[in-house]
Amino acid sequence: MSTLALLAVLPAIVLLVVIYRADNIEKEPFSLMAKVFGLGALTTISAMILEEIGLYILSFFFYEPNGLYTFFEMFCVVALAEEAGKYFVLKKATWKNKEFNFSFDGIVYSVCASLGFATLENILYVFQGGFSTAIMRAITAVPGHCIFGIFMGIYYGIAKGCELRGDEEGKNLNLKKALLVPIFLHGFYDFSCSFDYDGMFLVFILLEIFMTVNAIKMVKKMSKADKPLSPYMEMMAAQMVSPANVTADMTASSNTNAAQSQVTVTPVQAAPVADAAQKAPTSSEASNTNTSDVPPVNPNPVFTAESIDPSINS
What is the Rg, in whole angstroms, of the alpha carbon atoms belonging to the chain? Predict the structure, then answer.
């Protein structure tokens, strides 16, 4: 039992760690991530209820399941109920939160909601299906939910940036994409698994590869291009790393070091000159002095014993 529980939870934990580590600039608080994860898990319950309602409605239009019934079931019932629930809790928990301030944050939080859903759903399936189900879902369903969350988060982050820039049209457009793109991918994914046709398994494999490759590329791209969503924060960040400011800082530092060097050297060089001027004899004194009594001139009197203590020669 404990092994099955571990197998049910481990895939989501691994994927969540991968996404968290890809957030390079500003890590998101664990408290908010845990909140979104927990709310995402609760949407498993709401999705089950909505799916039952949707299937009941479909029963009025189809006397028996067929290809068209499967299409509506997967796209308009299952995918819609699950992705709409994730989107709802994601927006409620993070849209107005001050921690949602970088473009990559949208991916982090949307993946939290998706993997929260996937974890509870996976536990239910694994305890029913056993070890083989755990392995199969660990390489298909759970990564699939993570990928749906990545695409949701990309458009979700763009929409937030549009709002902060005053682009209401861009905000609404990308919020729609944040919901509709995951619904389409999820529906196509489930349809290719469920439709009874020999060629659909190949379609499923190709779709899985396509989604995985593109999700990895997008995560790497968004991670490298991560930037503040607020125009003011973005401007400040650009000024902090601009080449002109770097050059100015280096010039100011160089001037400061040069000034400090001059202040340090000047007293040391001036002291011997002043000292020598005070001790130098006048021309009349020099003429009355016996040259034999005059000691040899030391080119560096500062470092002789006589220059330190004149009483030594007396």
Answer: 37
What sign does the dihedral 294-296-302-307 (CA atoms) show? negative
- Say if CB 182 and CB 83 are below 8 A apart: yes
- Please, what are the averages of pLDDT over each run of 10 residues along the chain (314 residues)? 86 96 94 98 97 95 89 96 98 97 97 98 93 93 97 97 95 98 96 84 90 95 92 65 49 51 44 44 46 48 47 48
Residues ≥6 apart with Cβ < 8 Å to 130? 4
Note the Cα 84 to chain centre separation in Å: 25
C-alpha span between 71 and 298 (Å, rounded) = 105
The contacts of residue 101 (CB under 8 Å, 6+ apart) are 26, 228, 229, 230, 233
Enter the tokens of residue 162: 């549009």
Domain coordinates in residue numbering, the chain: 2-240
For residue 287, the surrounding DSSP H or E stretch is helix 283-287
Secondary structure (3-state) at 33? helix
pTM of the predicted structure, to 2 decimals:
0.75
